[in-house]
Amino acid sequence: MPGPDGGPRLANVWVYRGRAYDLTDWISKHPGGEFFIGRTKNRDITSIIGSYHRDPEKIERMLQKYALDRDAVVEDIHPKANAPDFLFKENFDSWRDTPHFRFDDKNDLLHRIKARLKEPELAARLKRMDTVFNVVVIGLVVAYFAVQGLRLFDTSWMPLPAFVIAMVVLRCGIAGYGHYAIHRPQKGLTKAFVSAFDVNYVALSFVTADGHALLHHPHTQSEVDIKKNVFTFMMDLPRWFRVPIHTVHKFGHTATGMVVRLLEICKLTRQVGIADMYGSWKGGLPHFIGAFGVRALLISELVVFIAMGDVWAWVLQFVATLWFSTFLIVASHDFDTDAHEHPDIDTDDWAVDQLEKAYDLKIVGNRYIDCFLSAGLSSHRVHHVLPFQRSGFANIATEDVVREESAAFGVEWLPAKSFVTDRLPKQCRVYLGSRSRPAQEHGWGFFREHFSPAALKTCADYTIKGFTGLGTV
């Protein structure tokens, strides 16, 4: 029987440390939520278990109940990680390209850091910091609706420049909460709240929860990491058309595209079977409610501003939020530099690898404020070593521990990079100033890059994909 993507339907297999397991019965029992187990079917989950669990050895013992008592074979792994093909390079193959790290060395960096987290005083502080983080988020949500309400009620109370700046800040802050909600156990209301990541107009958190948490974090900057591919789609566009076409593309996402994409996901879920994804409809419904709810909110805001005759206020905050957030999300890794400029790190220590491939970011210089201004990335290196922590404030509180333990492993702790003076100018040169990929590949000049039939067709296709939501993020 063919699978939902037209290819062969693979058996119910999850691969851990080269061995095959059938976790079907564990989907609805997983304390971290059904979604994370359901989405990792036919993948190598070694790095996910090692990085997202405080005690992976305990998980390994539990897995023995579901062992198939054989080594994994290539037929157990979906060649494109059970994800859409367009997210990966053309010759990507999960069996070959998924990186392998050791997680069984009790003296490695990750074990040393996790041991420190068990210290009672630090554990209690991390719990308090999570609570403070949540309280701040509630304040941001109240301010979010208040700012829009003031602007619509009386523009003199909320002048246009103040409105645009406030919306950029508030959307980034709320998206920062959505970012951490993606990393929390997908249980209860959290399943709905992950869609807060959508408010900055950049992505669809319903699929980002997979692409970010399960593909990007465990396999950073490898071929599995779709984050280094999806944000370069705009590089196919001619450079002078890039900003307007991408902006219209993302407006299409907001207006209709992501709703269409959600309907496609509903269709796919029915084809795959709700049991394989969530264990039951009860397990999946909050994810769908949150996703459709946030899309309805974003569309409703647009409609209300049009109805009130204040469409330019909405347009300006949309454009400012979109581009600030787009560059911000990829600012904390070297996605904008050629691979040959950064030689591969020869280590099987996963935590060392993560530290070497991530940046901390600063915007105003205060880590707690920057945590929200940067959508949760101010203490980004800690976040990559400890992706299971529940808030950006907890990461800030853990930074001293991670820095101290890293020093013993010879990992240099670099100062945070300024988004405004360092990362943004470099990104603008690459993402906005460089020739399109077709122009570079074929040696086209300026005119052919912008006005050849192939270039114009690319622009048209890219625009249409925004409004249809298919073949795009």
From TrEMBL:
Listed Pfam families: Cyt-b5, FA_desaturase
Organism lineage: Bacteria, Bacillati, Actinomycetota, Actinomycetes, Mycobacteriales
Transmembrane segments: 132-150, 162-182, 285-306, 312-331
PROSITE patterns, sorted: CYTOCHROME_B5_2 (PS50255)
The entry's keywords: Membrane, Transmembrane, Transmembrane helix
UniProt domain Cytochrome b5 heme-binding: residue ranges: 15-72
PANTHER family recorded: DELTA(5) FATTY ACID DESATURASE C-RELATED (PTHR19353:SF19), FATTY ACID DESATURASE 2 (PTHR19353)
SUPFAM superfamilies: Cytochrome b5-like heme/steroid binding domain
Protein name: Cytochrome b5 domain-containing protein
